[in-house]
Amino acid sequence: GVRPGATLDEIKRAYRRLALRYHPDKNPSEGERFKQISQAYEVLSDTHKRALYDRGGERAMKEGGLGSRGGSAGFGSPMDIFDFFFGGGVRM
What we know:
Elements: H1 8-22, H2 31-44, H3 47-63, H4 80-87
Helix pairs in contact: 1-2, 2-4
């Protein structure tokens, strides 16, 4: 994981580490987890999306123009994106 105030470089390193570990080519049963990792990275690595999420969670992301991609889709609660990186996993 990374600390809450993580830099973009720290987020990239965490994403790469997790993406390699859970990539479906290496772990076919982890396809959903890999998708969640990618979605979390999409939000955390984009300053605009991250700011939207910081202000209003999942609802702000949906209203912020992400459309059907739904930047936080697949996460059960607004905090799951951050829990995934900062706390080690998505709550189910």
